[in-house]
Automatic annotation (TrEMBL):
Transmembrane segments: none
GO CC terms of this entry: mitochondrial matrix
Gene Ontology MF, one: phospholipase A1 activity
Protein name: Uncharacterized protein
Length: 662
């Protein structure tokens, strides 16, 4: 609800206006969350200066009779602000919406709500405490109607469960000078008697009154100890989060952490805006996204934000990537203007799970002759004694089962195609100059979804149906922790390039380069190359090097050590502690796998099959990882850490801009 008061025109002093957005309490949450806002946000942070200026310009244009428009804000303009509703929400994916405020009058460095701020500004201009002619020993006062009473006058109910004294009590504003006012409760007899004293005291010495100031002033940074106390834990234990949040209400703290950490860093905002992008990566999640209702640690949009941040960080830290992405002329021309900090990669999530309705209480709209439902809900066939575990199974395992039930599989594929095309259309609308390449990145089950979609793409552009097919060509398909190998083996399918298929039982993706990337310890990942040709089962996957070049040289030295020395218990502990267990185990693994111990030469006919799927002549790529401490926890952990791994990001950068010799 927005209250606008007519403001009389005076020659009033200008004030620094800054727009803010809330981060702690969302106005709304994505579909699937049973959420209604019951409390008001208390924490607001300022938009970047450019975003704030754009919002102010759009707001003033609207106030002068123009039509309200959405304003793109934050890192890479990933959010839209709606000035009519005064909210901000993600532009490309479903996420929580947050309140925004125009900061003119402030209380404790937080912008006051519009109903109070507008009244203060109106009285400020009427009384003119900034005019010398108005200066006297008599205080300038004005009555300010509380927000709760404003709602009641409109015949509306206060929308929150509680209201603070500041929100429900009418106030008397005592204007001290051109930028300060004291707010005391209208019903306070003591306050009224003390108005003259309030007027004479410095602002910081006034007791019994709220001191409000006009114009934005940057807050002083908090002391280290205070900041440490307010800092939230980086990660929440999965079990703790599960037990704490099993009610189905998602944690507002999780969303707050994402908003404050993912989009507000000045370093990343500087490398954003309408920047040049050569590669747009659309990411498709795998199983278990409905867990995000309950677990604060599961949030695919946040994973993609991490990946985007890693791209930007790694690009600016390693000059070799600048040389890959920019020509020599560009490097010489923009050496000192900051343009070379742009990694030219954009990462956006596709979140499809909310479109597939197979929840615990899903009702199948089919009836028996006696009028009863033909099928029960999933909740009704649960065993009560282990209901939480059944919920977990419904959230995770059920996604895989649904994908291989034809009716739900088509829903999943249609949902991903719909969102991918919608994101593409919106991105092209905002960035009509984009003529770069588009890649798909699928994690876990998401990689199986990607492969099926790419295999269904027609050869001719004229045959594309936007309801069934992607509107755009796909340059690269990156599968992370992918079960495609076992899925296609069960189907009895080989995987071949589109132009070399030529027979039944072959899956042929319409893509220029297919990458199957995995950790050796990932229990969900399988190889793909043996499905290209069975001879490749005897060829080791290509190894992805460490992003840190110094580690690669250390690994080479370790690999040359005698096996009996590597197997020494104390040396093994030291090597593992240093994070170099992969190399130390290399000799031992080769001895135990004689068919992989010697790299065989790939026959020309088989190599051509691989080159049809990837210009590098390989599809399977194994990430470096230690082998000494393999257990269930580390195995599960390896499946979910791809988006945070610098080795993954570095490899993707090298494939997006391959050497010319490739």
């Amino acid at each position: 609800m927005r209250f606008l008061f007519a403001i009389r025109r005076y020659s009033t002093p200008s004030a620094a206006i800054r727009w803010f957005y809330a981060t702690d309490i969302p106005v709304s949450k994505p579909r699937g969350f049973d959420y209604k806002q019951t409390e008001r946000p208390r924490k607001f942070i300022p938009f970047a200066r450019t975003d704030s200026d754009n919002l102010e310009a759009a707001f003033l244009s609207w106030q002068k009779g123009g039509s309200p428009r959405e304003v793109a804000v934050n890192e890479d303009q990933l959010f839209d602000c709606n000035l009519e509703q005064m909210i901000m929400r993600p532009a490309y994916w479903e996420g929580p919406a947050y309140e925004i405020r125009r900061g003119l009058w402030f209380l404790d460095n937080m912008p006051l709500p519009a109903p109070i701020s507008d009244q203060l500004e109106q009285k400020y201009r009427e009384l003119g405490p900034y005019n010398e002619s108005q200066a006297s020993n008599e205080p300038l006062t004005a009555e300010i109607t509380s927000e709760v009473n404003l709602y009641e006058r409109e015949g509306k109910k206060w929308p929150f469960e509680k209201a603070t004294d500041f929100e429900k009590e009418d106030k008397i504003a005592v204007f001290k000078d051109h930028k300060t006012a004291f707010m005391i409760s209208k019903g306070s007899k003591v306050g009224k008697l003390q108005i003259k004293n309030f007027y004479k005291l410095p602002a910081q010495q006034v007791l019994g009154a709220d001191t409000v100031t006009r114009g934005y002033e940057k807050a002083e940074p908090k002391k280290t100890e205070e900041a440490r106390e307010e800092k939230m834990d980086e990660e929440k234990d999965l079990l703790t989060s599960w037990m704490k949040s099993w009610t189905g209400q998602a944690s507002n703290e999780r969303f707050q952490k994402d908003m404050e950490a993912d989009y507000t860093s000045p370093n990343f905002i500087a490398n954003s805006g309408d920047r040049e992008v050569d590669h747009l990566i659309l990411c498709i999640h795998g199983i278990g996204q409905t867990l995000s209702y309950r677990f604060s640690s599961i949030n695919f949009a946040h994973d993609c934000n991490n990946m985007r941040r890693q791209f930007k960080q790694l690009f600016t830290q390693n000059p070799k990537y600048v040389k890959m992405a920019y020509s020599e002329d560009e490097i010489a021309r923009h050496k000192n203007d900051g343009k070379l900090s742009n990694c030219k990669v954009q990462v956006l999530p596709i979140i499809w799970r909310f479109d597939v309705d197979f929840s615990l209480d899903k009702v199948f709209d089919e009836y028996e002759q006696d009028g009863h439902l033909r099928l029960p809900t999933l909740n009704q066939i649960n065993i009560d004694a282990i209901t939480p575990l059944r919920h977990l199974a419904a959230d995770v395992v059920m996604d895989i089962l649904l994908f291989y039930e034809p009716r739900f599989k088509q829903q999943i594929l249609s949902s991903v195609v719909k969102y991918a095309n919608a994101i593409y259309d919106k991105y092209m609308e905002r960035h009509p100059q984009f003529d770069g390449k588009i890649s798909l990145l699928g994690h876990s089950l998401g990689s199986a979804i990607c492969l099926d979609i790419l295999c269904s793409q027609p050869d001719s552009v004229e045959d594309i149906d936007p309801q069934k097919h992607l509107k755009f060509p796909v340059e690269n398909f990156f599968g992370l922790g992918s079960p495609n190998g076992v899925f296609k083996l069960i189907q009895g399918h080989n995987i071949r390039a589109r132009d070399s298929a030529g027979r039944n039982n072959v899956s042929s993706p319409k893509v220029n380069n297919y990458y199957n990337i995995f950790y050796p310890t990932d229990p969900v990942a399988y190889r793909v190359e043996p499905l290209v040709h069975s001879l490749l089962a005897g060829i080791k996957p290509e190894t992805i090097s460490f992003e840190d070049d110094s580690l690669n040289s250390q690994i080479q030295s370790l690999a040359e050590l005698p096996n009996n020395l590597i197997n020494n218990e104390y040396l093994r502990r030291a090597i593992n502690f240093a994070g170099l267990g992969d190399a130390a185990q290399l000799g031992e693994k080769q001895d135990k796998n004689p068919k992989l111990s010697e790299q065989k030469e790939i026959p020309d006919n088989v190599r051509k099959l691989l080159e049809g799927l990837n210009r590098t002549g390989r599809v399977d790529y194994s990430l470096p990882q230690g082998y000494f401490d393999i257990d269930l926890i580390s195995a599960v952990g390896s499946h979910i850490q791809y988006f945070d791994d610098r080795d993954v990001i570095g490899f993707l950068l090298r494939q997006l801009w391959p050497p010319k010799k490739q």
